[in-house]
Amino acid sequence: MQTDALIDRLAHAGPVRPLPPAWRRCLGWFALAAGFAAVIVLLMSPRPDLAAQLRETHFWVEQLAALATAILAAHAALALSVPGTSRRVALAPIIPAALWLGSQGVGCLSALTGRSGVSITGEPECLIFIALTGSVPAIALVAMLRRGFPVRPRLNLALAMLAAAALGNVGLRLFHAQDAALMVLIWQSGSVALLSFGGWLLGRTILNRPVTA
């Protein structure tokens, strides 16, 4: 855009309402996302051993870490949609994500103790279920990001997809009864990683909006 054209547009621009703080937008997103995830869990029917799982400390640690990852990643994505925000805010989900992954790794090592071989069976539906549960949260978060001005679209969309996929994983664990530790580590965590990487690749395509004169 030419400088004169930019000055002309700014001179005739109407009043601009600033975006609410990132934490407030994140709360609104989480209310919508959690409600949609709850509907999916009810439609798919809660897993038959859910009551027993809720008595397990490891299950709670894993779920709460995944939930914290989703919330902090969504907040980081929304904060970074405002120009001038430090990239360091993107580091916020690292600790809960590491705890989440670590809890799955510990479960995997415990399950494999004393075994001579490892059998890995396919669970490709994990990707489908996580994508389904995280679909509306992802769409809502992208729409919220586009109301700002994401100057780092790849990082923004990767964080958004991480948030949606992590929340989708929380929902999946409430209705999908696969609890083999290695399967959870490979297929469910792998699905989250794949969706986040897809967000990184498509960030410029989805979030970049050309400025026209």
Structural account:
The structure is a single chain. With 213 residues, the protein is an all-alpha fold. It is 70% helix and 0% strand. The protein has 9 helices and no strands. It has helices at residues 3-11, 22-44, 50-53, 57-79, 94-112, 125-133, 135-146, 153-175, 181-207. Helix 2 runs antiparallel to helix 7 (135-146) and helix 2 packs parallel to helix 8. The longest helix has 27 residues, at 181-207. Mean pLDDT is 81; it is low at 114-120.
In short:
By secondary structure, the chain is mainly α.
Stretches with pLDDT under 50, minimum 5 residues? 114-120
Distance between the termini: 6 Å
Radius of gyration: 20 Å
The helix-strand sequence is: HHHHHHHHH
Averaging pLDDT over every residue, what do you get?
81
What spatial form do the alpha-carbon principal axes imply? elongated
Count of DSSP E strands? Answer: 0
Number of helices: 9
Helix content: 55-70%
Looking at this protein, list some descriptive labels.
213 residues, mainly alpha
List the helices and strands and how they pair.
Layout: H1 3-11, H2 22-44, H3 50-53, H4 57-79, H5 94-112, H6 125-133, H7 135-146, H8 153-175, H9 181-207
Helix pairs in contact: 2-4, 2-7, 2-8, 4-5, 4-8, 5-9, 6-8, 6-9, 7-8, 8-9
